[in-house]
Amino acid sequence: MSAWTPRILAILCNWCSYAGADLAGVSRMQYPPSIRVVRVPCSGRVDPLFILKSLQSGFDGVLVSGCHPGDCHYISGNYVARRRFAVLKPLLDFVGIEPERVQFSWISAGEGERFAKVVAKVTDDVRRLGPAERLVKRT
Amino acid sequence: MTIGSELRDTARRLLSEGTVELVIGWRRGSRPTAAVPAFVTDPEEAGSLVFDGTCGTNPAVYFTRDRRQYSGRKVGVAVKGCDARAVLQLVMENQVVRDDVVLIGVACPGVLDRRRVALAACGREILELEDRGAEVMLRGAGFETVVRREDVLSDSCRGCPHPDPGSVDLLLGTPRREAASGEERERRVREFEALPPAGRWEATLREYGKCIRCYACRNVCPACYCETCFVDQNDPRWIGGTCEPTDTLIFHLIRNLHVAGRCVECGACARACPTGVDLLLLHRKVAVEVLERFREEAGMDAGARPIMASFREDERQEFIMG
Amino acid sequence: MSTAVRLDATSLDRFLRVLADAREVFAPVAATDGRVEFARVRGGEGVDSSRMLTGLSPKGLFFPEAEVLFRYDRGGILPVESPGGPIAVWGMRGCDARGLALLDRVFGSAFQKPGDERFEDPYWKSRYDRATIFGTVCPAPLSTCFCNWFGGSPSSTAGIDVQATDLGEAWLLSPVTAKGAELLMTVDDLLSPATARDVEASREIALRAQSALPPPPSLEGLEDLLTGVFHEPAWEGIAAPCVQCGACTFSCPTCHCFDIQDEDRNGRGRRIRAWDSCMFGIFTREASGHNPRALSTQRVRQRVMHKYSYFPGNYGEMLCTGCGRCVSVCPVGFDIRNVLLELVSGAEGEGR
């Protein structure tokens, strides 16, 4: 059991969160090597389907991160994303999927340290939950 | 004067005057427990139209089927409260031109749930059903029984927030149903939420284990009109097409999210389901969440922006890591 | 055929238990929400032998909704082991058993090249051939039943190995095939010889049910008649309410269209055969994107033509046993009987 480490998909918006992750990298900040990153133009691009498909494919957790409200490169993409996540999260909890597996954050391009902290927090939350089982598909 | 006879007169008049070339409504079908969609083009045929608690389909769906075959034609459509909102939602989404539609609102007493009706008859075949308002009479070979409407009402109608059609061109019948209290609407959602997470997961798997992926729910829904549904996409293939539990559950979760803020909770999906999956529970949960957080409901104002495509800057974002 | 025997109603549970010791047994089982569906049983608990029709047909027992044909990885194909052993199905209706016999003509080799095993569907044959089917005589048809339109009846024995009649205090079991007689011999300590009164009572039940069915319309030459009305504008009105779901095809005992899907992860996966439906919009969509049946009118017409014209043209029988599930399950109340009557009378009206 100690061999298992959480595998988390991090969907990061290009302009803010991905840049923030980059900054964490060049600043040599340490954070758990648990995430696989998918870069999207904007958090508004994220379809809930990506999140559920990830859980089905075997990711133990999903982190979606975008620009702070008001700072979106496309003006309002993150506001629309916020509404989507606001509905997705309670629905997953409703059917019994552990809420800490799917988390959202706003991280700006200058927040390298915050990025590292967010990844550490999500990794920790998911580690406590154990490997994801509820939506996993085994072929 | 019953609503049914008013509907027949109205349809006859609209068709003979040439105001519309088609009236979509309901007529008696082979099953006494469920009226079937009617497409009347000839005023002489208007006599086949009916309206009562067996009229459970949502006629708005026909505006988005088959490459919008009715677009450009003047169509009259009989609509319950929920159906009217569905049409207005389609107008909002530029799928229907408001001026091409004559909305014939009907004051709806609530739709009967076929399965509850069947249970009330103890599994014996029902050969005749009479909707008497507060009561429903069921008759079959060697039996006749009267049940209370509230005992056989669809779940969608038990918590109906808008029984009387708004923004319609004509209103038939006298609005008499009180809109359900928020509490009534949310009751089953709150009951389910009170279960522990593992219990909710087990119950969800059990319920959706009945699904046979026939897509009756998606196809009777006016809000589902994508040229290619995500389930049918091959490249990429998002989810498998079999009844594998995770595939089935993801289909339903995503359909729910795709119709979030657009679903009018008419319950047509739940009534269409051949295996009786409790589909309305998730749709109601999403609608309640949308109302609580964004203070808006689907199909109330055809001129508004769709709920999930709009925003307010100061919305609750407690679920986002601070 | 050997003589009929009698099983006390109170012994049904033991009967099913004994059968289940030596084989997979399936029977109609009641669920809490009022549905009755075929499921695997170990005894009589929960078995509902009185419901006229299960929600879904029993074709899923032999032609499952989804079936893994084989697995594969980079090393090659890994065949799926299917457990052998005999199967028994209790409580099937005549229409469903006839439906399975029709499917056996499609999935077996009889039509294309009798005796040539290359054309047999091994997945179907390996299960269907192992099954002994108990068919229950229908005591009272539903208003949606029309088995007698296409040569069926409440006491039809086609596709059945043992016919069962519910006499109230006992079941009358009449072997129809040698396979059925053999199975009954393995449980004969639970059975006693049927009396003449039992046999008479069962005949009365069958006759009463038969006379309760409205007489069938004249469908002489339906196959050719339908070809003649293929281009009639009446199809538009017929197809108008259909929303193109798969409820009718999935609940039908004779519909058998399927899709092959590969589920693959990094070079390992499985090939699955799953139910498909000619009603779905993408059923005939081609790789180019062209869809010869893009409109629902075309698909509705196709379904009717396949069942009542094309299939009989190939196999000499209608691809329908009149179970009526399509009529009761359709979300918009499409009634195939009315469609056929309308087309027949329309054609006659035109003097064809």
Description:
The complex is a heterotrimer of chains A (139), B (322) and C (352). Chain A is α/β, with parallel strands linked by helices. Chain A has one domain (8-129): Rossmann fold (3-Layer(aba) Sandwich), CATH 3.40.50. Chain A has four helices and four strands. A four-stranded parallel sheet of chain A has the order 2-1-3-4, sandwiched between helices. In chain A, β3, α3 (77-94) and β4 (102-106) form a beta-alpha-beta unit. Chain A is globular and about 40 Å long. Chain B is built from eleven helices and nine strands. Chain B has helices at 3-16, 81-92, 114-120, 149-152, 155-158, 182-193, 197-208, 216-220, 245-258, 268-272, 280-294, and strands at 22-27, 36-40, 75-79, 101-106, 128-131, 135-140, 143-148, 170-172, 320-321. A five-stranded mixed sheet of chain B has the order 2-1-3-4-8. In chain B, strands 5-6-7 form a three-stranded antiparallel sheet. In chain B, β3 (75-79), α2 and β4 (101-106) form a beta-alpha-beta unit. Chain C has 352 residues and is α+β, with helices and mostly antiparallel strands. Chain C folds into two domains: 5-64 and 81-212, no CATH class; 222-349, no CATH class. Chain C is built from eleven helices and twelve strands. In chain C, the strands form two sheets. In chain C, strands 3-2-6-7-8-9-1-10 form an eight-stranded mixed sheet. In chain C, α6 packs antiparallel against α9 (296-315). Chain C starts with a strand and ends with a helix.
What's the short version?
Chain B is α/β, with parallel strands linked by helices and 322 residues long. Chain B has eleven helices and nine strands. In chain B, the strands form two sheets. A five-stranded mixed β-sheet of chain B has the order 2-1-3-4-8.
Low-confidence stretches of chain C: none
* Alpha-carbon Rg of chain B, integer: 20 Å
Which of globular, elongated, flat, extended, rod-shaped describes the shape of chain B? globular
Domains counted in the coordinates of chain B: how many? Answer: 2
- What are the secondary-structure elements of chain B, in order, as H or E? HEEEHEHEEEHHEHHHHHHE
Uncertain spans of chain B: none
Estimated helix fraction of chain B? 25-40%
Number of helices of chain B: 11
Number of domains of chain C: 2
What strand line-up does the widest sheet of chain B have? Answer: 2-1-3-4-8
